[in-house]
Amino acid sequence: MTTVTTADTPKRRLDLTRPVLWLFAAFMIVLIVLPLSWLVVFAFTDKARRPTLQNFVTLFTDPAFLDPLMTTAIIATTSATICCLVAAPIGWLVSRTDMPGRQIIRALVTASFVTPPFLGAVAWELLAAPNSGMLNQLYRYLTGAEDPLFDIYSLTGLIFVISCYTFPFVFVLVANALDNMPGELEDASAILGGKAWTTARRVTIPLALPALVAGALIAFLQAMTLFGSPAILALPAGFHTMTTKIWSLFQYPPKLELAAAAAVPLLLLTILLLQGQKFLLGRRGFSVVGGKYGAPRPIEMGGWRWAALAFCLLVLLNPVFLPYFALLNAAFSPNATTLVTPSTATLHNVVFVFTELSSTQLALKNTVILGASTATVGTILALVVAYVTTRRVIASHRLLGFLATAPVAVPGIVLGVGLFLSYTRPPFVLYGTLWILLLAFLTINLPSAYQQLQAAFATIHPELEDASRILGATRLQALRQITAPLLRTGVIATWCFIFIGVMRELSAAIVLFTSQTKVLSVLIYDLNESGDLAAIAVLGIAMLVITFTVVLAVNRIPMFGGGAGARLRNS
Amino acid sequence: MASVDLRGLTKRFGSLAVVDNVSLKIDHGQLVCLLGPSGCGKTTTLRLIAGFLEPSDGEIHVGERLVSSRARTLPPEQRNMSMIFQSYALWPHMTVTENIVYGLRLRKLDRDTIAKKLAAILATTKLEVLAQRYPGELSGGQQQRVALARALIVEPETLLLDEPLSNLDANLREEMRFEIRRLHDEYRYTTVYVTHDQSEAMTTADLIAVMNGGRVDQIGTPEDIYARPESEFVARFIGASNVIKGTARDANHVTFAGATLKVVGAPLTPGQGAVVAIRQHDIGLSTQAPASTENAIKAVVTRQVYLGAARDYMVEVADGTSLRATTPTETNVPRGSEVWLTLPPERCRALSR
């Protein structure tokens, strides 16, 4: 070894970390606290902004408000239960057995996940509206009966459609937990004499339980705060859920105070549920991630494999095959609910939507702009907050984490109101611009983005950053050169997640849009009001095409490195 | 010249003082081991030196510079230190070469200089053939060498090592121990080495600081620490010592189990309790009564194990205290036998704490 001269000490740089972090913190506070404060102010005051509890008295004595509350509770509970009952077995089959076509099933579940719930609801209108629904037509044709088989405009129909597009949340969590569970844990039980079923009952299921409970909770919240499906299916049936009720309070004459007050039970219930989950799962603190474990051995199902596959496909008939068939059919048929034949197939609907329907171009443009910008800003924001909380960079990291998760407790429509109240007055007059929608979508998508990236951060050993800093990198350099590349996969996933989230968002947009800031989801809702289901089908398909194109494109951007995945897998 | 000087260093998490008033001066070019059981505050001390943590009290000086104090802590990147982590912390998305030259790139050295230094360090650590691999493709020992190369190539004033060998198997650990010492001697930086393994500390360190409960219990050369422990904790933690609790008769005699022991070490106060340490292999064991009764105690064998190179005895003396003794294999006394123990006075060390 030759003697070498002393290396230069790294140049002194101004440490911008803290100011940057405080800037983010301030932005977060404005983003979340401002609309929520206005909500609280409106909930506890009358029109003259004098403090009062009258809003709550009205809320809890008037049957017009109590009934939607009950309906919402029923919908959320039954949907969450159905989701767990359906998603848990499918998750287990896909993750732990030798069932054929496991990858296809995963892809199909993802397909139902990216389907906007309101689009699914419209598709089920095409399928199961009492008179024109294609399934009911088929039923009548086959049996000669007068009455329809299904009526989608009913509480049962609504619960069914909500469950169709909520169960992927549970599936993803359960399948991930099972994917990551070390095979040794099951083997240890087997070697001690546990039979397959005993092992499943005593080891696998208890270990997957936290994921299932978390999934049930998300399903519950999702079903509770959904606006699109109830607006499409419950309103024609003549009943309200909390979200549609709140929305109706914004119709002329607006009753903003009551709407804000109506949001409070939803808010409290959500907080209660989140605390309950913490209490149930907090003490156990078992994590199935970490350590070098072997891959689990798939369970051999023998002859039951095909039965299992049939079960999965049968379930996926409802959120994927039937609705997409109905939408495709409607898009190319002269009559939305008539089965298309080669001789009747027409491009009339497509031509109509893209050339004659005046708002299409604008809505498409707005949606893509909002999707890309929200995903980019949201990912960066979530990245910084997740970093601060997992690495405890500043004293107030808990507060930041709380702020980032708080919007989970705020239904989209309520947030929409809060933003409406905040940004129609100085100093921030943003109403009527795309900015207000950007803020809404950002806030709505922040909790899930934050949680995803926090989980991603937790898998990166803090010593990897420490090693970079002790060699002379500033905190920001370490973040850019070490942490960012290691987070690639998580970042891409989060970006896509937010983009998809924006595409399917309706509940906040419905309150905040103006004619110049219409987005696709609002356009589709409008078309549903006017009964133009064929145009919806065309737009829905266009929307999915955009989603898939963007997701594929993002995964191929060289900056995010196509080969990175292979390299990281080696470690 | 970069000495490292800890002055009254304290780190509290909440009300718990994990590092409690630690003072330690490390001269330039010295290799100091912080040795102690897990939870004794040694890693926290190291992270304080590195600047990853801010002290609750006290100061750290490196050379002439004050780098940490309650008021101001220089960030790690401005300390011109290197560190080797327990997990190695190799970046999985960079090749061996990219990992190693990372610090040089941050220092904005030109391409030729980087290439020259890289070639030299790869040769020293025998990593040439692995230069284009990713860390995930290396064995534990190879990863350890990459971590060493990455830390050394920037020629730090101070090198910090946090249990660097704990993830290696026994053979490799022994080899790497000497490797670390060899590289230290070659570059002469100031090294702080954290470990819980006393033989690791003995073979590598110039100076050992034994830590217990956030405090430094004893500082000394490996020989000091081993042969002249000052506290019961150090005596027990370093090597296999018996700790005898008796009563002082005068400044250097202790009454214990009906016998009187002449001892060395800390001066005793007559009438007070006295703690005496003696190593297992310093105790003589015989079935015959020794010629002189000085420092001889009668005992009964309660256990005997054949270790191959020696025999390990557990004996019980009159007051019920159990002592361990290691003898040559020829001394073969069955369980239950009465034996005489001889405790050489120069090996009986009275402990001050």
Automatic annotation (TrEMBL), chain A:
Any one of the GO CC terms: plasma membrane
Keywords assigned by UniProt?
Cell inner membrane, Cell membrane, Membrane, Transmembrane, Transmembrane helix, Transport
Determine if DNA damage is one of this entry's keywords. Answer: no
Q: Which domain of life is it from?
A: Bacteria
What is one Pfam family matched by this protein?
BPD_transp_1
Q: What is its main location?
A: membrane
Entry's InterPro entries?
A: MetI-like, MetI-like_sf
Is Transport included in the keywords of this UniProt record?
Answer: yes
UniProt GO BP: transmembrane transport
* Annotated localization: Cell inner membrane; Cell membrane
**Record SUPFAM superfamilies:** MetI-like
Q: Where is the ABC transmembrane type-1 domain?
A: 69-277, 364-554
* Transmembrane segments annotated in the record for this chain: 20-44, 69-92, 104-124, 152-175, 211-236, 256-274, 306-326, 368-388, 400-422, 428-446, 490-513, 533-554
Q: Which family does it belong to?
A: Belongs to the binding-protein-dependent transport system permease family.
- Name used for this protein in its record: Iron ABC transporter permease
UniProtKB/TrEMBL annotation, chain B:
Recorded hits in Pfam families, A to Z, give: ABC_tran, TOBE_2
Q: Which GO terms describe its molecular function?
A: ABC-type transporter activity; ATP binding; ATP hydrolysis activity
Which residue windows are transmembrane per the record? none
Alphabetic keyword roster: ATP-binding, Nucleotide-binding, Transport
Cellular localisation: Cell inner membrane
GO CC list = ATP-binding cassette (ABC) transporter complex
**What InterPro entries does this protein map onto?**
AAA+_ATPase, ABC_SmlMolc_Importer, ABC_transporter-like_ATP-bd, ABC_transporter-like_CS, Mo/tungstate-bd_C_term_dom, P-loop_NTPase, Transp-assoc_OB_typ2
Specify the protein's topology with respect to the membrane: Peripheral membrane protein
Per UniProt, residues of the ABC transporter domain are: 4-238
The entry's function note states: Involved in beta-(1-->2)glucan export. Transmembrane domains (TMD) form a pore in the inner membrane and the ATP-binding domain (NBD) is responsible for energy generation.
Q: Which family does it belong to?
A: Belongs to the ABC transporter superfamily.
Report what the protein is called. Answer: ABC transporter
Task: Write down the species.
Answer: Bradyrhizobium jicamae
